[in-house]
Structure formats: C-alpha cells, structure tokens
Amino acid sequence: MNPTDPADSETQTVHSLEVVVELTHTSRHLVAVYCRHGFIAPLSEEVHGGWTFDDEAVRKLRRMESMRSAFGINLAGLHLIEELQQELETLREEVRFLRGRVR
To answer: Distance of CA 44 to CAs 7, 26, 50, 58, Å?
Structure first.
C-alpha cells in the first residue's frame, strides 16, 4: 500500500472541472471531448453546479494525455488501448483467482 496514492485511500477526492484541468494540464474542451467519447464520466452533471470527477478520472486523463502528446495517439488508438488495458486487467484477475484455487 502506498500512502501517497489516492487509489489506496478509503475515501476518494472529488475534483471540480477547474481542478481537473489544472491537475491534468488539459483544457476544459479536451476534458469534454474525453467525456463525450466515453473515456471518463463526470460524477455530477454540469447543470447541478458543474462537473466533478474522481481520482480515477484524473489518472485516466493524465495517462491518455501522456500517450496522446508523447506518441501522437488519436482517439481511435486511445479506445483500442483502453480496451486492451481492460482485457489485461480481466486476465490478471482470472490468474489471481486461479492461483488462489491451486493453493
């Protein structure tokens, strides 16, 4: 467990759109594009006082922006990478389960 990693904490921080933009070094427009394409989803809708996001959304935005800016990966490439990462996590969970049954 890493005490500085927000994913390890019991409670998740909720960030406003403005804070997410600052933390991820993106624009409001780009956050909206990622939302529109289903990469992240706000915890609350804009009509209820503004979009808010959790730590996982911030991590995903940072990861996607890093890939996009460093490697020039477009939205279609990001979708493929996201699908592959989800499949990898599913396989890892299956391996952990199977290892637990063997012991």
So the answer is: 20, 19, 7, 15
Q: Considering only CA atoms, which of 37, 34, 88 is closest in space to residue 65?
A: 34
Q: How far is CA 24 from the centre of its chain?
A: 11
Q: What is the pTM of this model?
A: 0.73
**C-alpha 31, offset from chain centre:** 11
Whole-angstrom Cα distance, residue 69 to residue 89? Answer: 24
- Note the pLDDT of residue 29: 95
Structure tokens at 99: 């290892």
57-94 pLDDT, tens digit per residue, is 999 999 999 999 999 999 999 999 999 999 999 999 99
The alpha carbon of residue 82 and the mean position of all alpha carbons in its chain are separated, in whole angstroms, by: 10
Backbone angles phi, psi at 100, to 5 degrees: -70, -30
